[in-house]
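Hey,

The postdoc asked me to send both predictions to you directly instead of through the lab channel. I've kept everything plain text so nothing gets mangled by the mail client. Protein one:
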Amino acid sequence: MITANQRRLKVGVLTPHAAVGPEIEIPDMSQGRVTVTVARIRAPENAAGTESTGAPTALRALTRPEAVDGDAACFGDGSVDVVAHASTTTGYVLGVRSEAELIERLATKCAVPVVGSAGAAADALRACGAHRLVLVHPPWFDDEIDRMGVGYFRDQGFDVTLLKATGLSRDPSRIHTEGITDWVSRHLVTVTRPCSWPGTAFEPLGPYQSWSNEQVGWFFRRTRCCSGRSLPPPTRR
């Protein structure tokens, strides 16, 4: 609950994805102590956002300066305290080094700290002392994205096992938290290693599972981008 002498942390989100997620999840997990402004990245030739942004070539194109730097600069006017690039799959596509270069470039444009979803996930897992990871991918991820995801976390130093959530709908709009919870419960009954799902439009599942936006929220709590303000742990319902 916000008191009279507290100011909400203002977060800017850059994302190439059309799905509503960060603007709901991040404030919800912070118990109302964070406000979010979202800028959805579009290629100059696709200003209406009518093309799919799930393919690796499209995601890579949306990290180019002509696609994203203008949106990033809009957050450089002091309107936000920190910026998140919310796209785990973009991190997969770019790889660890190129993702870090993107985040550094965006931080220069935004003039505030910037974090990326995939990098935040790796940092959060390391902070928990994790070395082995179960990566659960949704059924609409193709084999190329699957390989990139495993490769990304292996390059970050983790022992990775990939599970594909087959049996769930291939339509993201028809996926609900309860269905994923049931799938994880049935397929990872004895799992004792952290489990990560790369989607950004669902609530956290339980003590061993985490979502991309939850990991971004962890970054906000653990770094100085909160400017000395403490945020509560994410709410799990």
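Protein two:
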Amino acid sequence: MNAMHDPQSAPRSAAGPGRLKNSRPLPLSPIVRAKETHRGLPAACLVFLTSGACGAPAHDAQTHDTQTRFAVTATVEAVARVVTQSAPSQVVVSTTDVERGFVDVAEPMRLRVSANSPGCVLDIVTVAPMLSSLVLKGLGSDQRLEAAGGTVVERWTPRGIQPSTADLVLHFRLMLAPQIAPGSYPWPLRVFVRPVESPAA
């Protein structure tokens, strides 16, 4: 009589439960192997491992510095200013003055001139038709000017680009026109100043 086969008494496979005899383990994917082999590495490096880019040489960007050089020049404009500190307000003509033909004005004209040029130009203008000419004194040598006035150049050495200041004391001899009678007349002269480099100098 044949013995009945008991499934429970059959010897179990040495491979253990759920595993076939002589079966081979399934290969792990590259991603799983990377995770198991490099467990504990930073996530950023794992990304390089799975992508195959870990250890690739990095290329630094080169920065090019550009330098530009240029020359800057500045031109200081020549300027001159004048302040009249005192001046005669009128001219008193006496009979003696008429007879001799001129008046020596006792009160001088005092000017303070500032300029950043090596001197200044004085423009003297007659504003009343009472003169035939005039003589200007006080600038080294006497300057004889026409009835309408004239131009006198006064030179000095400036202190760098800082304005130089000069105090001028001008004396006048007024040569009278033939029709002038004795009496009092308004001061007939005006003085203007400009730098010596002015094209009109």
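Summary for protein two, as requested: Helices lie at 30-37, 43-51, 95-100.

Thanks,
C.
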